Amino acid sequence: MSSHEPVPLFSAQFDLNSQEFSLSGILRPLSPIEIAETTTLLEKSINQVRGVLYINVKRLIHMNATAYHALARLLVNASRARRDIRFVVVTSSVVGWATRTFHHLSAIEPKIAVEAYDSAFYPGQTFVENQSFIPILRTQTKMTWRHERDILPRHGMRAGIAMADICCGIGDFAVLVHKEFKPARIVALDHSAVSLDYARKVAADFDIRDIEYTYGDASEMLLEDNQFDLVTCRHSLQIFNRPDILLKELYRICKPGGRVYITNEKNSHCLGEPRAASIQWTYNEVATLFSHFDMDVEMGPKSRRLLRDAGFEAIEMESFMVSNLDGDPQDFADVVAAWEDVYAGEMSVRRGDTSEFIKRFRQGFQDHIFAALHPKGYAGWPIWAASGRKPL
Amino acid sequence: MSEQSTDRTALPFHPMLELEMEMEIFMSDWLHCNQLSNYVARMVSHDRSDPVRHANLLSSALNELFEISFRSGSAPGRLHCDISRGDHLERISLTFPCAPEQQHLYRDASTKASGGGALERYLDALADENSVQEDIILLGLAINYDASLLLREVEGRALTVILDIPVEGLLN
């Protein structure tokens, strides 16, 4: 390719319905002429909107000064000529340079607002970023690992691979995989700075230096296409309101022939004996509660369909029951106690439930704990693991 | 050799990567700026606290310097890039052929970027369609990356731009 051809590394789109002009990819032209089509599209977009125009640069990975200057002048001039339109530039907190760079536009012309996209865009994100969730995640991973250690090789895990753990949380899974399977490379990504700080500290304490913990948004990742032999995403699709977008990203970063491995729950199938009816009632309500916040904790058995719809082939699917018989029953009880804290103590309150409802809701968790700790009792938490191969 | 800014060579910087290529080859394709920036940034970011974001930021700054050298248009000669690391800084040192009559553009831009009032000058330059490209680039590096600049003339035929960037600080 000669240097006079446009750099084909980016795309620009305008969506009239949402009045949003989006730029994505790498925008590093030699001269403004190379991006003339893009600036013309932006000018046309400005002429078609009323009230507000959103400029979405969340997926703009790189932009050079030449492109920025051209866009900045266009936006500043347009905001001065069209006093009836507000301009809102939406950047990503994940792309470090973007918010700093675009922020100057509002200093030049106050009618241009710059908003850093953040976790508030995900309805359920605030609950899982809460520090009180850390003990839940830690104990959950300890309990599920007993099963997943056997399951993972059937889904593409083996020594020497390049793998990514997306929505890695506090990073325990990455550490366990690192020790057990010895991949050549592990990238672990999460959108919670608090969780990543914790993960880095644990890795440092264990003298583990080769896990790349990175701050990132699973639906808008900076990771390049076709990089990983195995991409894992555990218990996370079910807490995003748009799992299809996440799966598209998991597919994108997976190598052709590689696999994407997901785990999800079906909370209404949590069970226990004795006090089965009370436990059943509460977990049915858990599913309804999550649905209120646009999360689907009934997703587990839907994994096969989700993977097929995302374009995967050779889908493998299985389920396992984490129970009070796996090691110390107190671990199971601790997990349920943590669920009660977050689900009944925070989410149900946020939904505006009555005190009578919350009391009954809590009772089911207490009964599940009772079943877990009872010498003759049984308590279970079912999980579905599935993986699909990206076609060659 | 002459210097325009305070000599900071006494600071302890450890070499990370050195790259050299014929200017003629480098200038055969504009995409080399993007490719080299991403490659070099990724190679030296692997051991940082957040390698992906570190590489993204470093590539952005590095690319501006590669683009400056590309635009200088002064083949023949060699392009030389050194990356080194101090306690809190990544140092990019880029040497490229540059005719003496062109060097004043970079010296002027560097002076504007290094002195007080750089932010105001940057905002004015952004809104002005007649701004000098070198001003926008060097002011942008100083303002958006908290970078400091040093220029060195190499025997009247080449220029070395040294850029110190606190990348780890920008990640927080």
Automatic annotation (TrEMBL), chain A:
Domain of life assignment: Bacteria
Keywords: Methyltransferase, Plasmid, Transferase
Signal peptide as annotated in the record: none
Matching InterPro entries: Methyltransf_25, SAM-dependent_MTases_sf
GO molecular function: methyltransferase activity
Record-linked Pfam families: Methyltransf_25
Xref: Gene3D superfamilies: Vaccinia Virus protein VP39
GO BP term (any one): methylation
Ranges where the Methyltransferase domain occurs: 165-258
PANTHER family tied to this protein: 2-METHOXY-6-POLYPRENYL-1,4-BENZOQUINOL METHYLASE, MITOCHONDRIAL (PTHR43591:SF24), METHYLTRANSFERASE (PTHR43591)
Name by which UniProt lists this protein: Methyltransferase domain-containing protein
Lineage: Bacteria, Pseudomonadati, Pseudomonadota, Alphaproteobacteria, Hyphomicrobiales
